[in-house]
TrEMBL record:
Signal peptide: none annotated. The keyword Hydrolase applies. InterPro entries: GH, GH_1_N_CS, Glyco_hydro_1, Glyco_hydro_1_AS. GO terms for molecular function: beta-glucosidase activity. The active site is at E378 (nucleophile). This is 6-phospho-beta-glucosidase. It comes from the Bacteria. GO terms for cellular component: cytosol. Pfam families: Glyco_hydro_1. Belongs to the glycosyl hydrolase 1 family.
């Protein structure tokens, strides 16, 4: 097996809104995640025409409000990450902790002080912080007052926020990402753009306008970072799903090419190359409008051109399969991104199709397209863990899943891919973004908490904890 490079960034990944809790402590404002109900129907509820972003505790549960109370347990948790040997830890800053309403002129000092402590705790153990500036947690006020990312005013709000956190932490944090899974908005714009049916999600023009605004905002963050220190590394972050044709029918092959452009490539092309791709008008015409219908300015396009990202971070959980001929009607039910069932793949407890070879393909596709360093910043298996009376979870299925994906990464490195690091998702159990559940567990560390928020919050290392410790210690040679 190919060797992982010296200094490879082994670690884990989390998001503020899924684990911090303390959703109204120390001046924090409400985020969109705070207003999304828990449970597997959370996206359906949010897309009802009468959804008004009001918190209704008599009607729904809100597991994000308490998360796993990382806000008060972060020292204990980071110590456990250090015990595993983490070289880095990818986490996000909750925008609404820093600017509670999103549009203030001055930041909330208590919020900044919290992340001072988190970063200091990481550095104490020689863990490199990798920070996502916005990870599915924009301030709720930016949606209810301004209509989400389709409003250009959000560019300046994000720029102020990014400048605040970059200026505060740049001397201690080298690696940054602008927006989590920015391309996910093609299929579920609620998390990344704050768009639901009631405020414009049904019109694709709004999604593309929101993307343009985010591209400009992200490029401005890159500019700020490089002005502070040219050695800072700022990446984009994509949700990548290797996409296959169901069969060799040329009609499906063409549909697969188009799906790849729309989902896997478009957002990356703009952020990495600094300009809109040649297929942009062809893509937008499918939705009934042209690029000229979007609100863009020459100055904004110049900002994009001048500030491409330094690396590509991406999540990889599953692949997708395309059939437009009607040859199969069996859909891949668990795939948030849609598609038909791939007969050659098994699926997780939640129906996500497991495809480690697809990760090797993804790494090759991305590196050949962009020739920039890659960083697998999310990958993992959401599963129903059973804990025994000794507080132990024998999660061999998770070990098997991760082992196969690490082998796929080693294969890609042998293929010549420049891979920076690997941070499996939900390195400690947290609230699932897609279903709002605790029972969909990803972590190496079990947290005693159920879907109704009941439990002791005690932390217990699973079998995968020791296994991953060995993986890191051997730099990926002992799997």
């Amino acid at each position: 097996m190919a060797k992982f490079p010296e200094g490879f960034l082994w670690g884990g990944a989390t998001a503020a809104n899924q684990l911090e809790g303390a959703y109204q402590e120390d001046g924090k404002g409400l985020s969109i995640a705070d207003a999304l109900p828990g449970g597997p129907d959370r996206f359906k509820i949010a897309n009802q025409e009468d959804f008004d972003w009001q918190i209704k505790p008599d009607q729904y549960t809100y597991p994000n409000h308490n998360g796993i109370d990382y806000y008060h347990h972060f020292r204990e948790d980071i110590k456990l990450f250090a015990e595993m040997g983490f070289k880095c830890y990818r986490f996000s800053i909750a925008w609404s902790r820093i600017f509670p309403q999103g549009d203030e002129l001055e930041p909330n000092e208590a919020g900044l002080a919290f992340y001072d402590q988190v970063i200091a705790e990481c550095l104490k153990y020689n863990i490199e912080p990798v920070i996502t500036i916005s990870h599915y947690e924009m301030p709720l006020n930016l949606v209810t007052t301004y209509g989400g990312w389709k409003n250009k005013k959000l560019i300046s709000f994000y720029e102020r926020y990014a400048k605040t956190v970059l200026t505060r932490y740049y001397q201690k944090v080298k690696y940054w990402m602008t927006f989590n899974e920015i391309n996910s908005a093609l299929h579920f714009p609620v998390m990344g753009q704050g768009l639901v049916s009631s405020n414009g999600a049904k019109e694709m023009k709004n999604i593309y306008q929101a993307w343009h605004n985010q591209f400009v905002a992200g490029a401005k963050a890159v500019a700020i970072a490089h002005q502070l220190d040219p050695k800072l590394k700022v990446g984009c972050m994509l949700l990548y799903a290797t996409t296959y044709s169901y069969n060799a029918n040329p009609v499906n092959q063409l549909a697969t090419l188009k799906e790849n452009q729309a989902f896997n490539q478009f957002c990356g092309d703009v952020q990495v190359r600094g300009e809109y791709p040649s297929y942009t008008d062809s893509l937008l015409k499918e939705y009934g409008f042209n690029f000229s219908d979007l609100e863009t300015t020459p100055e904004e396009l110049a900002v994009l051109k001048a500030n491409p990202v330094d690396y590509i971070g991406f999540s990889y959980y599953m692949s997708a399969t395309v059939d437009v001929t009607g040859e199969t009607n069996e859909t891949a039910s668990g795939n948030l991104i849609g598609g038909v069932k791939n007969p050659y793949l098994k699926a997780s407890d939640w129906g996500w199709q497991i495809d480690p070879t697809g990760l090797r393909i993804a790494l090759n596709e991305l590196y050949q397209r962009y020739q920039k360093p890659l960083f697998v910043v999310e990958n993992g298996l959401g599963a129903k863990d059973e804990i025994d009376d000794q507080h132990y979870v024998a999660d061999d299925y998770r070990i098997d899943y991760l082992r196969q994906h690490i082998e796929a990464m080693a294969g890609a490195i042998a293929d010549g891919v420049d891979l920076m690091g690997y941070t499996p998702w939900g390195c400690i159990d947290l609230v699932s973004a897609s279903t709002g559940q605790m029972s969909k567990r990803y972590g190496f560390i079990y947290v005693d908490l159920d879907d109704n928020g009941q439990g002791t919050l005690a932390r217990y290392p699973k079998k995968s904890f020791k296994w991953y410790q060995q993986v890191i210690r051997s730099n990926g040679q002992e799997l």
